[in-house]
């Protein structure tokens, strides 16, 4: 769906990957992305995250802004550096072909362990591609996990509002 200029990916489903490494992208995702290319990146878990180009650009600019705010010193932090390096050096440009498929490079397919069946889910301004078995075993959100995460995020918002949260 689109809200103004922003694409919001919702929903989920199982999609086959063909022998050439192409996966069909859900019709509503294709409709909302139009002719826009995207960036395929590695996720923080064993998945790929697909960003419309404008969303990817915004994240990269935000990472650069954070680095600038710390006079580049934050790049000495191994966690921040790992995020920047993974997010940029392992990213590849993707394009949806005339048949609604996107080629997932072999190295990225191997990284997430996908060979035949994928699970695609919308995650706001991005969507994720998982090996379906990996999704079933490790990523399926349980109600109790969602509740714990909701409490944690509410605490973060409260801390930020009170000024206790710093970049």
Helix-strand makeup class: alpha+beta
H/E topology pattern: EEEEHEEHHEEHEEHH
C-alpha termini separation: 31 Å
Quickly name the level 1 CATH class.
Alpha Beta
Explain what this protein looks like in three dimensions.
With 167 residues, the chain is α+β, with helices and mostly antiparallel strands. It has a single domain, classed as Chemotaxis protein chec. Helix content is 42%, strand content 25%. The protein has 6 helices and 10 strands. A 6-stranded antiparallel beta sheet has the order 3-9-10-6-5-7. Strand 5 and strand 6 form a beta hairpin. The model has no long low-confidence stretch (mean pLDDT 88).
How are the secondary structure elements laid out?
Elements: E1 2-3, E2 6-7, E3 12-16, E4 22-24, H1 27-33, E5 38-42, E6 48-52, H2 53-69, H3 78-89, E7 92-94, E8 101-103, H4 106-112, E9 117-123, E10 126-131, H5 132-139, H6 143-161
Compact summary:
By secondary structure, the protein is α+β, with helices and mostly antiparallel strands.
């Amino acid at each position: 769906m689109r809200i103004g200029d922003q694409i919001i990916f919702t929903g989920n489903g199982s999609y086959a990957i063909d022998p050439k490494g192409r996966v069909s992208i859900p019709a509503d995702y294709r409709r909302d992305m139009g002719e826009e290319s995207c960036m395929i990146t590695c996720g923080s878990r064993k998945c790929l995250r697909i960003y419309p180009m404008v969303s990817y650009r915004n994240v990269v600019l935000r990472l650069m802004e954070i680095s600038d705010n710390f006079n580049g010193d934050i790049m000495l932090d191994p966690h921040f550096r790992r995020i920047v390096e993974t997010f940029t050096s392992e990213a590849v440009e993707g394009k949806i072909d005339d048949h609604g498929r996107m080629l997932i490079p072999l190295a990225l397919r191997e990284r997430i362990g996908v060979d035949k069946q994928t699970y695609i889910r919308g995650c706001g301004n991005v969507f994720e591609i998982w090996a379906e078995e990996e999704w079933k075993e490790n990523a399926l959100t349980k109600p109790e996990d969602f509740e714990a995460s909701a409490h944690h995020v509410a605490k973060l918002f409260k801390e930020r509002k009170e000024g206790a949260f710093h970049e």
